[in-house]
UniProtKB/TrEMBL annotation:
Organism of derivation: Ottowia cancrivicina
Source lineage: Bacteria, Pseudomonadati, Pseudomonadota, Betaproteobacteria, Burkholderiales
Official protein name in the record: DUF1287 domain-containing protein
Keywords: Signal
KW Amino-acid biosynthesis (keyword) present: no
Domain of life: Bacteria
InterPro entries per UniProt: DUF1287, TAT_signal
Keyword Signal belongs to the record: yes
One Pfam family this sequence matches: DUF1287
Signal peptide: 1-25
Length: 205
């Protein structure tokens, strides 16, 4: 897991730059969206002020429904926890899909078999899962192409993969906000177009 820890440290080092962005409009209007998508967004937003640290250390956790301490986590934990609030356990779903389709998943970490402690906490694995089990949409840079509850992946400087959930709120310029953890805990920010978008997913179990 040394590579994973180095990636976490690199994100922390870059967060001061990455978190800077245009000011948000006061009382930004919320966008109409399906009820299930709004529930996902609210569950992600509820993590703000709870998850206050970025910590990518490998931990042994329960399976299923295992989690690291709520005050810490990485970008994937925002997504996993938001879906868990809907009764959807991505830890179990990703593990089962990896067992069924091991060759479809990336082999970036030298694993010989699935690992329930970490597989669902890695952006490339979530991207494959959402592409296989959900809807994969164009990785557009047009803000109007994104809906509340969509999940987006980016490549941060240093080739660091990242993921977040599209909010139902918009910036002063009309760009949907993103709920994510890029180094300072869960935040809701104008970050959709800040980095290279590598994936756009819509999922409804």
């Amino acid at each position: 897991m040394n590579a994973h820890r180095r990636a976490a440290l690199a994100v922390l080092a870059s967060c001061a730059v990455a978190l800077a962005g245009p000011a948000l409009a006061a009382g930004s209007a919320e966008t109409a969206a399906p009820a299930h998508a709004l529930k996902l967004v609210r569950a992600a937003r509820a993590q703000i002020g709870v998850t206050t640290r970025y910590d990518g250390a490998y931990r042994r956790i329960l399976y299923p429904m295992g989690d690291v301490p709520a005050q810490a986590g990485v970008c994937t934990d925002v997504v996993v926890r938001a879906w868990r609030a809907q009764g959807v356990d991505l830890q179990q779903l990703v593990h089962e899909d990896m067992r069924r389709a091991w060759p479809a998943y990336p082999k970036l970490w030298g694993l010989k078999r699935p690992d329930t402690n970490i597989d669902h906490r890695r952006v490339p694995n979530l991207a494959v899962f959402f592409r296989r089990r959900g809807q994969s949409l164009p990785a557009s840079r047009q803000p109007g192409d994104y809906r509340p509850g969509d999940m987006v992946t980016w490549m941060l400087p240093g080739n660091l993969p990242h993921i977040g959930i599209i909010s139902d709120r918009k910036s002063a310029s009309g760009t949907p906000l993103v709920i994510h953890n890029v180094g300072a805990g869960t935040q809701e920010e104008d970050a959709l177009l800040r980095w290279l978008v590598t994936g756009h997913y819509r999922y409804r179990p």
